[in-house]
Amino acid sequence: MEFLLAGHSHSFACGVKALGDIRVEPIESSQLPILGLMGGWKGSRTTEYWDALKENAKDKHVVLFWAGNQHNLGFMFKEEETFDFYLKRYGQTETKNVAFVPKAVVQEHFSSSFSRVRKILSELQTCDCLSITVVETPPPKGDNDFLLKFIKQSDHFLKLAEKAGINLEKLDVSSPLFRLKLWKVCQDLLKDICNEMNIRFVEVPEEMKAADGTLDKKYWANDITHANSEYGKAIVQYVYDKVLEE
Protein backbone atom coordinates (compact mmCIF):
# COMPACT_ATOMS: atom_id res chain seq x y z
CA MET A 1 0.00 0.00 0.00
CA GLU A 2 1.79 3.09 -1.27
CA PHE A 3 1.28 6.80 -0.91
CA LEU A 4 1.95 9.21 -3.76
CA LEU A 5 2.78 12.83 -2.88
CA ALA A 6 2.31 15.53 -5.50
CA GLY A 7 1.51 19.18 -5.94
CA HIS A 8 2.90 22.68 -5.87
CA SER A 9 5.97 24.06 -4.10
CA HIS A 10 4.84 23.26 -0.54
CA SER A 11 5.32 19.60 -1.43
CA PHE A 12 9.08 20.22 -1.71
CA ALA A 13 9.47 20.29 2.09
CA CYS A 14 8.09 16.74 2.08
CA GLY A 15 10.77 15.46 -0.28
CA VAL A 16 9.13 16.03 -3.67
CA LYS A 17 11.91 17.18 -6.01
CA ALA A 18 11.39 20.18 -8.26
CA LEU A 19 14.05 19.47 -10.89
CA GLY A 20 14.40 16.97 -13.69
CA ASP A 21 11.92 15.09 -15.81
CA ILE A 22 8.52 14.17 -14.41
CA ARG A 23 8.90 10.80 -12.69
CA VAL A 24 7.80 8.76 -9.67
CA GLU A 25 10.46 8.02 -7.06
CA PRO A 26 10.52 7.08 -3.36
CA ILE A 27 10.74 9.97 -0.92
CA GLU A 28 14.36 9.63 0.21
CA SER A 29 13.86 11.34 3.57
CA SER A 30 11.06 9.02 4.67
CA GLN A 31 11.05 5.47 6.02
CA LEU A 32 7.38 5.20 5.10
CA PRO A 33 6.14 3.60 1.84
CA ILE A 34 5.77 6.99 0.18
CA LEU A 35 6.50 8.00 -3.40
CA GLY A 36 6.75 11.47 -4.87
CA LEU A 37 5.79 12.73 -8.28
CA MET A 38 9.06 14.51 -8.97
CA GLY A 39 10.34 17.07 -11.43
CA GLY A 40 8.62 19.17 -14.03
CA TRP A 41 8.62 22.36 -11.97
CA LYS A 42 8.41 25.48 -14.15
CA GLY A 43 7.37 27.99 -11.52
CA SER A 44 4.06 26.17 -11.31
CA ARG A 45 2.60 22.88 -12.53
CA THR A 46 1.97 21.99 -16.15
CA THR A 47 -0.76 19.89 -17.73
CA GLU A 48 1.88 17.18 -18.26
CA TYR A 49 2.49 17.00 -14.52
CA TRP A 50 -1.19 16.55 -13.68
CA ASP A 51 -1.54 13.98 -16.46
CA ALA A 52 1.36 12.05 -14.92
CA LEU A 53 -0.37 12.15 -11.53
CA LYS A 54 -3.50 10.60 -13.00
CA GLU A 55 -1.47 7.97 -14.82
CA ASN A 56 0.32 6.92 -11.61
CA ALA A 57 -2.55 7.22 -9.11
CA LYS A 58 -4.04 3.74 -9.46
CA ASP A 59 -3.92 1.65 -6.25
CA LYS A 60 -2.24 4.45 -4.32
CA HIS A 61 -3.22 6.90 -1.61
CA VAL A 62 -2.77 10.23 -3.38
CA VAL A 63 -1.69 13.18 -1.20
CA LEU A 64 -1.98 16.58 -2.84
CA PHE A 65 -0.52 19.97 -1.86
CA TRP A 66 -2.35 22.70 -3.76
CA ALA A 67 -0.90 26.22 -4.21
CA GLY A 68 -0.70 27.93 -0.79
CA ASN A 69 0.95 31.26 -1.51
CA GLN A 70 -2.09 33.20 -2.74
CA HIS A 71 -2.23 35.27 0.44
CA ASN A 72 1.18 36.75 -0.39
CA LEU A 73 0.32 37.92 -3.89
CA GLY A 74 -0.88 41.49 -3.64
CA PHE A 75 -0.89 41.57 0.15
CA MET A 76 2.69 41.02 1.28
CA PHE A 77 3.59 44.66 1.81
CA LYS A 78 2.35 46.99 4.52
CA GLU A 79 1.13 49.49 1.93
CA GLU A 80 -1.16 46.77 0.57
CA GLU A 81 -2.85 46.18 3.92
CA THR A 82 -5.66 48.58 3.07
CA PHE A 83 -8.61 46.58 4.43
CA ASP A 84 -9.71 44.18 7.14
CA PHE A 85 -12.60 41.73 7.48
CA TYR A 86 -14.37 39.66 10.10
CA LEU A 87 -13.22 36.06 10.40
CA LYS A 88 -14.49 33.81 13.16
CA ARG A 89 -11.92 33.10 15.91
CA TYR A 90 -9.59 35.81 14.57
CA GLY A 91 -9.24 39.35 15.83
CA GLN A 92 -9.09 42.65 14.03
CA THR A 93 -5.74 43.89 12.76
CA GLU A 94 -4.21 46.95 14.42
CA THR A 95 -3.52 48.71 11.14
CA LYS A 96 -5.18 52.13 11.20
CA ASN A 97 -7.33 53.78 8.54
CA VAL A 98 -8.32 50.63 6.70
CA ALA A 99 -11.66 49.77 5.11
CA PHE A 100 -13.72 46.93 6.62
CA VAL A 101 -15.03 44.66 3.88
CA PRO A 102 -17.29 41.58 3.88
CA LYS A 103 -15.49 38.24 4.01
CA ALA A 104 -17.33 37.30 0.82
CA VAL A 105 -15.36 39.95 -1.06
CA VAL A 106 -12.09 38.34 0.06
CA GLN A 107 -13.38 34.88 -0.84
CA GLU A 108 -14.37 36.07 -4.30
CA HIS A 109 -10.91 37.55 -4.84
CA PHE A 110 -9.22 34.20 -4.17
CA SER A 111 -11.82 31.85 -5.66
CA SER A 112 -10.29 31.83 -9.15
CA SER A 113 -7.06 30.34 -7.77
CA PHE A 114 -9.00 27.14 -7.05
CA SER A 115 -10.76 26.81 -10.40
CA ARG A 116 -8.39 24.11 -11.64
CA VAL A 117 -8.16 22.00 -8.49
CA ARG A 118 -11.78 20.90 -8.73
CA LYS A 119 -11.17 19.51 -12.23
CA ILE A 120 -7.99 17.72 -11.17
CA LEU A 121 -9.64 16.18 -8.12
CA SER A 122 -12.63 15.11 -10.19
CA GLU A 123 -10.36 13.36 -12.68
CA LEU A 124 -8.40 11.70 -9.89
CA GLN A 125 -11.62 10.23 -8.56
CA THR A 126 -11.86 8.18 -11.77
CA CYS A 127 -8.29 6.81 -11.51
CA ASP A 128 -8.92 3.90 -9.11
CA CYS A 129 -6.69 5.37 -6.42
CA LEU A 130 -7.19 4.05 -2.89
CA SER A 131 -7.92 7.50 -1.52
CA ILE A 132 -7.32 11.20 -2.13
CA THR A 133 -6.09 13.58 0.56
CA VAL A 134 -5.59 17.32 0.18
CA VAL A 135 -3.28 18.84 2.78
CA GLU A 136 -3.61 22.35 4.15
CA THR A 137 -0.50 24.34 3.32
CA PRO A 138 1.68 25.86 6.08
CA PRO A 139 0.39 29.05 7.69
CA PRO A 140 2.39 32.27 7.23
CA LYS A 141 5.52 33.13 9.18
CA GLY A 142 5.07 35.64 11.96
CA ASP A 143 8.38 37.55 12.02
CA ASN A 144 8.32 40.51 9.64
CA ASP A 145 12.04 41.25 10.05
CA PHE A 146 12.83 37.67 9.02
CA LEU A 147 10.64 37.99 5.93
CA LEU A 148 11.97 41.41 5.00
CA LYS A 149 15.51 40.08 4.85
CA PHE A 150 14.55 37.61 2.16
CA ILE A 151 12.19 39.98 0.35
CA LYS A 152 15.09 42.39 -0.16
CA GLN A 153 17.03 39.55 -1.80
CA SER A 154 14.14 38.50 -4.04
CA ASP A 155 13.91 39.99 -7.52
CA HIS A 156 10.35 38.68 -7.73
CA PHE A 157 9.07 40.50 -4.64
CA LEU A 158 11.10 43.62 -5.32
CA LYS A 159 9.54 43.84 -8.77
CA LEU A 160 6.10 43.39 -7.23
CA ALA A 161 6.85 46.24 -4.82
CA GLU A 162 8.07 48.48 -7.62
CA LYS A 163 5.01 47.68 -9.71
CA ALA A 164 2.81 48.65 -6.75
CA GLY A 165 4.64 51.97 -6.46
CA ILE A 166 6.15 51.14 -3.06
CA ASN A 167 9.29 52.96 -1.95
CA LEU A 168 11.90 50.20 -1.69
CA GLU A 169 13.87 52.15 0.92
CA LYS A 170 10.85 52.10 3.24
CA LEU A 171 9.75 48.56 2.47
CA ASP A 172 7.73 46.86 5.22
CA VAL A 173 5.67 43.68 5.48
CA SER A 174 1.95 43.48 6.16
CA SER A 175 0.97 42.32 9.65
CA PRO A 176 1.12 38.60 10.52
CA LEU A 177 -2.56 38.63 11.51
CA PHE A 178 -3.59 40.11 8.16
CA ARG A 179 -1.63 37.50 6.23
CA LEU A 180 -2.88 34.75 8.53
CA LYS A 181 -6.52 35.68 7.92
CA LEU A 182 -6.00 35.76 4.16
CA TRP A 183 -4.29 32.36 4.31
CA LYS A 184 -7.19 30.97 6.33
CA VAL A 185 -9.75 32.20 3.80
CA CYS A 186 -7.81 30.44 1.04
CA GLN A 187 -7.55 27.19 2.97
CA ASP A 188 -11.24 27.27 3.89
CA LEU A 189 -12.13 27.66 0.21
CA LEU A 190 -10.04 24.60 -0.58
CA LYS A 191 -11.57 22.68 2.33
CA ASP A 192 -15.08 23.52 1.11
CA ILE A 193 -14.27 22.10 -2.32
CA CYS A 194 -12.97 18.89 -0.74
CA ASN A 195 -16.03 18.57 1.47
CA GLU A 196 -18.33 19.03 -1.53
CA MET A 197 -16.45 16.29 -3.38
CA ASN A 198 -16.19 13.95 -0.37
CA ILE A 199 -12.40 14.19 -0.38
CA ARG A 200 -10.33 14.12 2.80
CA PHE A 201 -8.84 17.46 3.82
CA VAL A 202 -6.13 17.41 6.50
CA GLU A 203 -5.43 20.61 8.42
CA VAL A 204 -2.05 21.55 9.87
CA PRO A 205 -2.15 20.38 13.51
CA GLU A 206 -2.16 23.04 16.21
CA GLU A 207 1.08 21.73 17.73
CA MET A 208 2.91 22.81 14.57
CA LYS A 209 1.77 26.41 14.99
CA ALA A 210 2.85 29.26 17.23
CA ALA A 211 0.44 30.63 19.82
CA ASP A 212 -0.87 33.24 17.35
CA GLY A 213 -1.64 30.64 14.68
CA THR A 214 1.35 31.35 12.45
CA LEU A 215 3.83 28.61 11.62
CA ASP A 216 6.05 27.52 14.53
CA LYS A 217 9.50 29.01 13.98
CA LYS A 218 11.27 25.64 14.15
CA TYR A 219 9.53 24.72 10.90
CA TRP A 220 10.57 27.78 8.88
CA ALA A 221 12.62 27.35 5.74
CA ASN A 222 15.08 30.14 4.98
CA ASP A 223 12.80 31.89 2.54
CA ILE A 224 9.63 33.96 2.46
CA THR A 225 6.90 31.37 2.17
CA HIS A 226 7.92 27.76 2.71
CA ALA A 227 8.38 25.29 5.54
CA ASN A 228 11.52 23.20 6.09
CA SER A 229 12.25 19.48 5.85
CA GLU A 230 11.54 18.96 9.56
CA TYR A 231 8.04 20.24 8.89
CA GLY A 232 7.84 18.00 5.84
CA LYS A 233 8.68 14.86 7.80
CA ALA A 234 6.22 15.76 10.54
CA ILE A 235 3.31 16.59 8.24
CA VAL A 236 3.88 13.47 6.11
CA GLN A 237 3.79 11.27 9.21
CA TYR A 238 0.68 13.10 10.43
CA VAL A 239 -1.11 12.64 7.10
CA TYR A 240 0.02 9.02 6.85
CA ASP A 241 -1.44 8.24 10.27
CA LYS A 242 -4.66 10.12 9.48
CA VAL A 243 -5.23 8.18 6.27
CA LEU A 244 -4.57 4.80 7.87
CA GLU A 245 -6.88 5.44 10.82
CA GLU A 246 -9.88 6.28 8.62
Question: How would you sum up this structure, described in words?
Answer:
Helix 2 packs across helix 6 (176-196). With 246 residues, the chain is α/β, with parallel strands linked by helices. Strands 2-3-1-4-7-8 form a 6-stranded mixed β-sheet, with helices on both faces. It has a two-stranded parallel ribbon with strand order 5-6. 34% of the residues lie in helices and 13% in strands.
Low-confidence stretches: none
The helix content, as a percent range, equals 25-40%
Order of helices and strands: EEEHEEEHHEHHHEH
Biggest β-sheet, characterized? Answer: 6 strands, mixed
On the 0 to 100 scale, the average pLDDT is: 95
**Rough outline:** globular
* Gap from first CA to last CA: 15 Å
Strand-residue fraction? 5-15%
What would you call the quaternary organization? single chain
Structural class by helix and strand composition: alpha/beta
For the largest beta sheet, what order do the strands appear in spatially? 2-3-1-4-7-8
Q: What is the helix tally?
A: 7
Cα Rg: 18 Å
Strand segment count: 8
Can you lay out the helices and strands and say which pair or pack?
Layout: E1 2-7, E2 23-26, E3 34-38, H1 47-56, E4 60-65, E5 83-84, E6 99-100, H2 103-111, H3 115-124, E7 131-135, H4 144-151, H5 155-163, H6 176-196, E8 200-202, H7 229-245
Parallel strand pairs: 1-3, 1-4, 4-7, 5-6, 7-8
Antiparallel strand pairs: 2-3
